[in-house]
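Handout, section B. The chain below has 166 residues.
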Amino acid sequence: MFDVGFSELMVIGIVALLVLGPERLPKVARTTGHLLGRLQRYVSDVKSDISREMQLDELKRLQEEARQSAISLESTVRSEMAGIEKDVSSSLQSASSAVADLENSIKAPVDGSAVASSFDHDAASAQLDRQLAEADTHAGPAPSGAAVAEEPRSEPVPPEPKSIKS
């Protein structure tokens, strides 16, 4: 704190001994020591309080940054979810309209005046393939890890023979 050497302390001690006398010098030295100790404790307390305040301000700043990043992340996730919901609903709507069109095209030859035997199986299959492809393009790519659906067969599957129980 002060740049006081041993020789300077000796001079101060001799002057104090001459001024105070040998009877009061130990008492004054003890009081001076206590006051210097209190002063040092007070200075260290002030330093630690300042250090704690600086750490508290830093923690508050970090907490605010974390809160802001959490809010930003939440808004990003919400907007992405809204976009995904919109895409899925539009894909679902286009797929349901494609299914309705397909049902109408299948019912039209049966309900119409055309004879069922003139129903062209290959043309219906081609139309079904086009509508399924259109529905797939509206639905977008399949999610990763999803099982790939088996493609529909254009030929009817013969029924399995029934076993006769005796």
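Note. The chain has a mean pLDDT of 80. Compare this with the example in section A.
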